[in-house]
Amino acid sequence: MPWFPRDFLSATRGWPVTAKGVYRELLDASWDCGGGLPADTDTLRRMIGATAAEWRTAWPLVEPKLPITDGDGLRRNARLEYHRAKAMGLSEVRSDIGYKGGKATAEARRRAAGASE
Prior knowledge:
Helix content: 55-70%
Largest sheet: none
Strand content: under 5%
């Protein structure tokens, strides 16, 4: 997951450190889960190990950053999903380049082996 500290700090300026920690934990969990998070707030709280008091402080600030999406009812952060799509596209390009490079190397080795016989 790409990490942009300046963007995170500007998006959370003035938040208590607990809220920043909850938000970061949820972003990390979302990235790790491969997409959306459950809509249920008790599940989210337990998922990141926040106490009830920490959650009460943080959730009113964090909730707008993780809206429930239409269709599947999961919570997603739009910016994180943008970066996920970008990373997946880059991964596909790199995979394709690696596959083509491997094929070219194998072909060159076959030609070299045939020439030395």
